[in-house]
Design goal:
The protein is mainly beta. The chain is built from no helices and 22 strands.
């Protein structure tokens, strides 16, 4: 039988290869297929379906639109985002605050830059829920910036551990802000998969270099060393690996 190459444990998704949507008020980069951008090799990663890196111009935004059967998480990096939804919530989301929506059987919402003078930069994340037709829900959580310093802090989880926001999936979302040269040793156990997304800064995962906007997928058990090359903000998604990976 012919030899087959082993699947690498770590696969990098360079920022430059992401999809892009540009409008007059929006510059959005898509780690996975989204909207008019479609790439059969990047349809998601296990339950992680969307990571959109959005920059919205002053006064710009998304008018009221529907979602269903998705866990939607928003993390603001700079600026402020104004949210309103069909459940009656109206809030402004700022850095160090995480927003989560269970779209469930249906929810409408709008998102606008809360400023008329400064842009807003955010990551919007979609995670497939554990089941369809759940009751729509909204939550927003503020975190102490010191809780991210040189460690991963869980910000979303299925059980609300460590005062995290609850999501309806076997997934952990963590954020870390690390000093230059700081090292982190991680073990990915059997049955789990991990996606890293570099919000800003640069690091090496073992021998692979990543910069702002890059992502990296880890399939299967692995021992990893993360070495920060400069001050770095990093999101980590710890996902159940009980379905086929959706990232080639």
């Amino acid at each position: 039988m012919p030899d087959t190459d082993p699947i690498p444990a770590l696969i990098v998704r360079p920022a430059s290869s992401r999809g892009q949507t540009r409008l007059g008020w929006l510059d959005s980069r898509h780690s996975f297929s989204f909207g008019e951008y479609r790439d059969i090799h990047h349809m998601g990663f296990h339950a992680l379906r969307v990571i959109n890196d959005d920059r919205i111009a002053p006064g710009g935004g998304f008018g009221e639109h529907p979602h269903r059967d998705m866990e939607i998480i928003t993390w603001v990096l700079d600026g402020a985002l104004k949210h309103a939804d069909s459940l009656g919530h109206e809030f402004v989301l700022k850095p160090n605050e995480l927003q989560g929506m269970t779209a469930g059987r249906g929810i409408y919402h709008s998102e606008f830059n809360a400023s008329l003078t400064a842009p807003v930069h955010l990551l919007q994340i979609w995670i497939r829920p554990r089941e369809r037709g759940l009751a729509p829900a909204y939550d927003q959580r503020a975190f102490d910036p010191d809780s991210f310093r040189n460690r991963f802090r869980t910000v979303a989880s299925p059980d609300g551990a460590d005062d995290s926001l609850v999501i309806q999936q076997d997934a952990l979302v963590s954020v870390g802000r690390f000093d230059a040269l700081h090292r982190v040793r991680l073990e990915v156990p059997v049955g789990r998969a991990v996606w890293f997304q570099v919000a800003r800064g640069a690091l090496a995962i073992d021998d692979e270099s990543l910069a702002e906007g890059d992502g990296a997928a880890v399939n299967g058990a692995a021992a990893l060393t993360l070495t920060m090359r400069e001050e770095t903000e990093l999101l980590m998604f710890d996902l159940a690996a009980d379905d086929p990976p959706r990232q080639s």
